[in-house]
Design a protein that fits this description.
The chain is α/β, with parallel strands linked by helices. It is built from 5 helices and 14 strands. The structure holds ligand PMT.
């Protein structure tokens, strides 16, 4: 519609995986395709928002001229790009699957195979969403939680610890939910509310998420 709360708002969205280099040919990554984040970006743009989409490596493409796409590779690059835009964002949604750890050192040359096992030391990556929570001023901040067990408890823990206004839970125990699929099944939590949704296309899930945001902002 034309009269949405998103009209004229700046929405910052993270999407996709991050790749953490091991050497010039190898990386640590995950199964995120970027579909969930790109669907959110298109839906927010359709509702009249100016969208800043910061995405890790993904084959998804944007359609709306109201989306500004910034491609990054690693978590550190995603952090830097996000904070170029965070201060001016009205709404921020973190749907990226950011690697929690990265190799301590990136080998300058391709690591050669020998007869020994190989150990790669990993160090903690910055938590982009947690940093957004710490620096929150007027932004309405939405996180995701991708869980495989104790889903609701973990999601509520992240809502609290990362200083979020709302969190979207998807569980890999729900068939058709999470990575790669064109579908997702979500539960949304705020400090006081819980809402469960059916399995649907990621385009329709994006609508549910933005409808929920809109309801919160109208309160
Ligand atoms: O891309 P698709 O194939 O469509 O898949 C969509 C999805 C499954 C990736 C998406 O729906 C989703 O769940 N994204 C969050 C994945 C995730 O990493 O969840 P988490 O529970 O580990 O992280 C919690 C939150 O903190 C997330 O909002 C995440 O973006 C953020 N985070 C995590 C770690 C980190 N270093 N920085 C972060 O910003």
């Amino acid at each position: 519609g034309d009269n949405t709360i998103f009209k004229g708002k700046t929405v910052l969205i993270t999407a996709g995986p991050t790749y953490e280099a091991i050497d010039p040919v190898r990386f640590i990554g995950n199964h995120s395709s970027g579909k969930m984040g790109f669907s959110l970006a298109e839906e927010a743009a359709k509702r009249g928002a100016k969208v800043i989409l910061v995405s890790g490596p993904s084959s998804q493409v944007i359609h709306s001229p109201n989306i500004e796409l910034h491609k990054v590779v690693s978590a550190k690059e995603m952090l830097d790009k996000v904070f170029e835009f965070y201060e001016n964002a009205d709404i921020a949604i973190a749907s990226a699957a950011v690697a929690d750890y990265a190799p301590k050192e990136v080998a300058r040359e391709k690591i050669k195979k020998n007869d020994e096992n190989l150990t790669i030391e990993l160090v903690k990556n910055p938590d982009i969403l947690k940093t957004m929570g710490e620096k929150k001023t007027r932004q309405f901040l939405v996180g995701f939680a991708l869980e495989t067990q104790n889903e609701e408890e973990n999601a509520k823990g992240k809502l609290e610890k990362k200083n979020l206004d709302m969190i979207v839970l998807n569980s890999l125990r729900d068939p058709g939910a999470g990575f790669k699929n064109d579908t997702n099944k979500i539960r949304i939590f705020t400090k006081t509310e819980r809402k469960e949704f059916d399995l649907k296309s990621k385009e329709d899930v994006a609508k549910d998420i933005l409808n929920f945001v809109e309801d919160q902002l109208l309160k």
